[in-house]
Amino acid sequence: MAQQFSFPVWLINLDSNPERYKSAAEQLDKLGFQAERFSAIYGKNLSEQAINACYDSKLNREKFRRPLSAGEIGCYLSHRTLWQRMVDEQIPLALILEDDIDLEAEFVTVLQKISQLDNWDMIKLADDRDGKGEQKLALGDGYELVNFAKVPNCTTGYALTLQGAKKLLSRPRFFRPVDVDLQFYPELGLSVYSILPYRLWSASRFESEIDKMSGGSRKGGTSFWRNLIYRLQLRAVRKKHLSGDLSSVQYKAQSATEKV
């Protein structure tokens, strides 16, 4: 049975990985979702001109510990293209998923909770380090909305509002990996939350495409001082800020008869 949610579900998938798309699409189909496939941007196919148009190498040297790999640039640009689509088409809310996912049946409940929330930018739906959050807002049925001092890694899956997309696009060019950039949310005035417990996970059976493009390593080009400066910048964010004000989020709980 198709789920009756008003927002689109976009599944990012490289043309060279049909097996990953098949796995993710079948899982979503079992839960009643028809995802729209987005053909991911393969970083190694980008021209120097295309890279310079979206990637700021000068700010990268100042604000990140190493140069971005071609895979990281392609990954960021894939997400950024979908954010731009939200703005161009005035889409109020979208669900953006990468293709290396495993879903639990209760994922539907998480999306029901999201549909009842207002006044937020991004809700991350997965975390590769199992962060617990700092403050909590009870959503019923054992679920909580949480904010962070340390925003979770990965962009495996997240919900994004139009307001959030505009904030993410306010930076003309990027200079960090997309998931790291989200950890510097104060620079964009972005609010980032998660709903716990997580019902979406990164599938360990698939190798990272970014690592494959980078030959298994993303550590080249760094130095002691460059790494130290980056670590201090990140520490300052985590010490001084939380990723969102839970008191400003509006939650309208549905009755049992109203639930999808």
UniProtKB/TrEMBL annotation:
This is Glycosyltransferase family 25 protein. Keywords: Glycosyltransferase, Transferase. Belongs to the glycosyltransferase 25 family. Residues 8-175 form the Glycosyl transferase family domain. It holds the Pfam family Glyco_transf_25. InterPro entries: Collagen_mod_GT25, Glyco_trans_25. PANTHER family: GLYCOSYLTRANSFERASE 25 FAMILY MEMBER, PROCOLLAGEN-LYSINE,2-OXOGLUTARATE 5-DIOXYGENASE/GLYCOSYLTRANSFERASE 25 FAMILY MEMBER. It comes from the Bacteria.
